[in-house]
Design goal:
The complex is a heterodimer. Chain A contains five helices and no strands. By secondary structure, chain A is an all-alpha fold. Chain A has one domain: Up-down Bundle (3 helical TM bundles of succinate and fumarate reductases). By secondary structure, chain B is an all-alpha fold. In chain B, helix 1 packs across helix 3. Chain B has a domain of about 70 residues: 3 helical TM bundles of succinate and fumarate reductases (Up-down Bundle). The radius of gyration of chain B is 20 Å and the shape is extended. The termini of chain B are far apart. The chains are: A mainly alpha, B mainly alpha. The interface between A and B is medium-sized, with 35 and 34 residues.
Chain lengths: ~130, ~130
């Protein structure tokens, strides 16, 4: 017999009131990052010692641009989800915990935006 | 309510280190290290978009022995986190949760991370014509 209310079961959000959204997003980005990171490492290894022209030509390739954009979005989303859990586990002073989480989320968005701008600039403006 | 500072479980200091616990700890540590490593990736992309001196600077830094050491550590952390992440995804599906399987997959993850890291670096040096 379950002691949960019907409404609680329908909402499915549990005691943390946020359900499995965080957990699920962490897994989705993880699955996406397996092929994306393998692709990135192989390509960067191929670019070892290459000059700026070769690197720019690689990034400007449409397939590369799109895969890099997907990689950056997945990396920074995955990163801030993971760092949030680490902060929640080890920082016990409430205001400091919240401040750290806000700093991590803002930094992730700023770094992602900077990367995306750099990729698009190379792709469109050369 | 009694709010004395009571010891909280788990008491990590009284446990003998085990492969399973060490690998779990390493997954977190490599995750945090990779988060710091993203700064290098962003710097590299920005330098490539600026070209000229900005790119020469980062190439010189990465090309130095310290830069290569950092990049090697980053590669190893990445492949460890990637392989152990796949191990976690199998656990999420309820597979490989018994102790012998957890130890077996743990050793496989270590071996795979080392093999992938060395392969990546051999590939890199080969591209530079150093091999």
């Amino acid at each position: 017999m379950s002691l949960r209310t019907d409404l609680g079961k329908v909402r499915g959000l549990g005691s943390a009131k946020e359900g499995v959204a965080h957990w699920w997003a962490q897994r989705l980005t993880a699955i996406a990052l397996v092929p994306l990171m393998l692709w990135l490492v192989i390509n960067i290894a191929h670019l070892a010692g290459a000059d700026v022209k070769a690197v720019q030509a690689w990034i400007a390739n449409p397939l590369t641009s799109v895969l890099l954009i997907l990689m950056i979005v997945a990396v920074f989303h995955h990163m801030q989800l993971g760092l949030q859990v680490v902060i929640e586990d080890y920082v016990h002073t409430e205001w400091l915990k919240v401040a750290c989480i806000i700093a991590v989320k803002f930094a992730a968005i700023a770094l992602a935006a900077t990367s995306l701008f750099a990729i698009l600039k190379i792709a469109f403006a050369g | 309510m009694d709010t004395r500072e009571r010891p909280l479980s788990p008491h990590l200091q009284v446990y003998k280190p085990q492969l399973t616990s060490i690998l779990s700890l390493m997954h977190r540590m490599t995750g945090v290290a990779l988060a710091v490593g993203t700064l290098l990736l962003v710097w590299w992309l920005v330098a490539a978009s600026l070209g000229g001196e900005a790119f020469t600077t980062i190439q010189t830094i990465i090309g130095s022995w310290f830069g290569r050491l950092l990049l090697f550590g980053w590669t190893l952390a990445l492949f460890y986190h990637l392989c152990n992440g796949i191990r976690h995804l199998f656990w999420d599906m309820g597979k490989g949760l018994d102790l012998p399987a957890a130890y077996r997959s743990g050793w496989i993850v270590i071996a795979a991370a080392i093999v992938l890291t060395i392969s990546g670096w051999v590939c890199g040096y080969y591209s530079m014509g150093a091999l």
